[in-house]
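USER: Note each token:
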Amino acid sequence: MAEFVFAPPDQVAIPVAGGGLFPVRRVYCVGRNYAEHVREMGGDPKTEVPSFFTKPTDALLTGGADLPYPPMTSDLHHEMELVVAIGVGGADIPEGGALGHVWGYAAGLDMTRRDLQQQLRKEGKTWDMGKGFDHSGPIGEVARAARIGHPAKGRIELAVNGEQRQHSDLSHMVWSVPEIIAHLSRFVRLAPGDLIFTGTPEGVGAVQRGDVLEGRVEGVGSVRTRIV
């Protein structure tokens, strides 16, 4: 058996509420999944279909760790989201059976270099570096679906320095969790350890060094980080 030319990286994992670790394979994200956020970004929710992008697995930030302000931006934005943790893989998953593939849920933040994203989009270039940078995915503990069920409604909110910035309800998602899983699994085969960030509601905005971000998804959990 051939040896690695250098030590492979550690397995990325997220703490599970009540104990244990959820090993992460891939991180998928849904764009523009709340109608009011689509409108605040200049889009029309009536014309939207599910669209996806990815983050590197090691962009996840756990345990309430500090988030270093990233380079190549002066307009870092928060996006509060429900995160789905996949426990059973599959391709072409039918919508009616999609929730059977979910192991649990978490609260997460899709941090975005907004100025870079918008400039690259304006130039017709891929805006991957606006989303997939180091520490761009703060995430809380994973709650087992066997314990909390499958939330289709409930408050999702984010406060910055104690002041509410984002607040909505999971029922306002354009595409439900089963619809997201079914659609994504047409493009890629999902596997245990995959995460899906399901999109953010309206109220996204810039943060600065020293800001403390505290988010919560009702019935699921919370996420916290400080920009340094």
User: Anything to note?
Assistant: The chain has a mean pLDDT of 95.
